[in-house]
Amino acid sequence: MEATATASMPMSLSPEAGAIRATWEDSEDTSRVWGSIAQQSSDARYVRPDAIPWLLVQTAGVAAGPTGGRHLAKTTFIQRVNTVGGQAPPSGCRTIADVGVRAFVPYSADYVFYRKAHDR
Description:
By secondary structure, the protein is mainly beta. The protein has strands at 11-13, 20-25, 32-41, 54-63, 77-85, 107-114.
């Protein structure tokens, strides 16, 4: 599957009872997919010590783009790998008083989108 998703992984409200989930939108047809973390890894053999964990995200829902775009419609899992950066800042994110504080923390990662093999 060749789909170009936006470079960021925004958090948004999905249709299921207002749950906050990671959401991706295809930059060509604007189809969307959202999901929740199924597994995560900070295994030092793969993940840099200064990087956010690698993730396996299970699809919770999909939506076609406004013109019927369906590039992401058959996605079953999304994998976040090769992460660089993204760790919370050393201050401002550690105590109850910090709840609601926002900080821009840049990171990069590769996202791999999976679907069932017979759905070609």
